[in-house]
Design brief:
Strand content: 5-15%
Shape: elongated
Radius of gyration: 25 Å
Structural class: alpha+beta
CATH architecture of the largest domain: 2-Layer Sandwich
CATH class of the largest domain: Alpha Beta
Largest sheet: 6 strands, antiparallel
Strand order of the largest sheet: 2-1-6-5-4-3
Distance between the termini: 80 Å
Number of strands: 6
Mean pLDDT: 84
Length: about 280
């Protein structure tokens, strides 16, 4: 059938066209992240065969659960998330109201930084690969960091601890390094497929003693929620500190590490510096 102008109307898209559209988007976003089909399958908890069939248009009815898993694994946000959601609805007829959409309205990094800056104890935030994204003023004082030192030190917590010059302030250093490495291995055990994880690991292995300790540290079966270590401060002397880690439900890409006094001497030092102590508030 032709139109009044003698041209044929556009051919309607078929089910296989929608499947190809959705699969091509998944492949595009996967390649942009630098992931193989197997790595994406691991991240989304799907089979590699399923990913292959999805990308080649052989899956015409992926579930909402699968679509949400892909959004999380591929870290798709903003316009790209909207495009994939439209393609999913065209393919399946189902709306994709991803549970993470509300969290995206408030950037998790900025939220973590805001909470850190309003914490009276020394604190900083960490991303999921332990990049330090925000320090508060008490933490910068405690660890003797300023703008210039932050510019030269690694932005990764392990990079700071293994820094050849900076690590001398921790007592005993190797015990702390082993504890942190064990926790890092445990916390990132599901992220080793990420290209940025491999880049980070490669850079850390170039630091003195990192390879030796990493090759002999056991990730264990759980991460320590709190541990005690000592450090030397040029003005405050020896400090005994206890860590506490806060992880937010639904926003697990960022955590907050707070440093509390580990003995009475350090408690007195905290109080003298105006850092909040139990039962008191700072002005």
């Amino acid at each position: 059938m032709t139109s009044l102008h003698g041209t044929r109307p556009p051919h309607p898209m078929r089910a296989e066209d929608y499947a190809n559209e959705f699969g091509a988007m998944v492949a595009q976003f996967r390649q942009r992240r630098g992931l193989s089909q197997g790595q994406l399958a691991h991240a989304a908890r799907l089979s590699r065969t399923y990913i292959y069939h999805l990308e080649t248009g052989q899956r015409s009815a992926p579930s909402v659960r699968v679509a949400r898993a892909l959004l999380r694994a591929l870290e798709i946000h903003g316009d790209d998330r909207h495009r994939l959601a439209i393609a999913f609805t065209r393919l399946t007829g189902l709306p994709l109201e991803d549970e993470a959409d509300g969290a995206d309205l408030l950037d998790q990094r900025e939220l973590a930084g805001l909470l850190v800056r309003n914490t009276a104890f020394p604190a900083h935030s960490l991303d999921r690969l332990w990049g330090v994204s925000a320090w508060n003023i008490p933490a910068m004082h405690l660890f003797e960091l300023d703008a210039s030192s932050l510019a030269t030190l690694s932005r990764n917590l392990l990079g700071v601890v293994f820094d050849p010059a900076y690590r001398a302030r921790f007592r005993p250093w190797e015990a702390l390094a082993r504890r942190l490495l064990a926790d890092f291995k445990y916390n990132t055990r599901a992220l080793t497929y990420l290209p940025e994880y491999r880049d980070l690991w490669r850079s850390l292995r170039a630091l003195p003693d990192f390879r030796r300790i990493a090759d002999s540290s056991d990730p264990g079966t759980s991460a320590a929620t709190s541990f005690i270590f000592q450090m030397r401060h040029t003005e405050l002397g020896t400090l005994t500190l206890r860590t506490t880690v806060t992880i937010f439900s639904g926003a697990s890409d960022y955590s907050i590490v707070t440093y509390l006094p580990g003995d009475q001497q350090t408690l007195a030092i905290f109080a003298a510096n105006g850092w909040q102590v139990l039962g008191e508030t700072t002005s």
